[in-house]
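Project standup — Tuesday

K.O.: blocked on the structure for the chain from last sprint. Re-posting the sequence here as requested.
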Amino acid sequence: MDSINKNQPEKNTENLLGNEAIEKMKQLAKKAGSCFFLHQH
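H.V.: unblocked you, prediction finished:
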């Protein structure tokens, strides 16, 4: 399994802050079809 990871690297982590992080969360929640985060306006 480790040789597969070495030969086919994936970008599966990001460090996001501020508006960029908020937009990514919105994108992921929309893609998933449900979101379990509680937010207040």
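K.O.: great, moving the ticket to review. The chain is about 50% helix and 0% strand. Residues 18-32 form the longest helix (15 residues).
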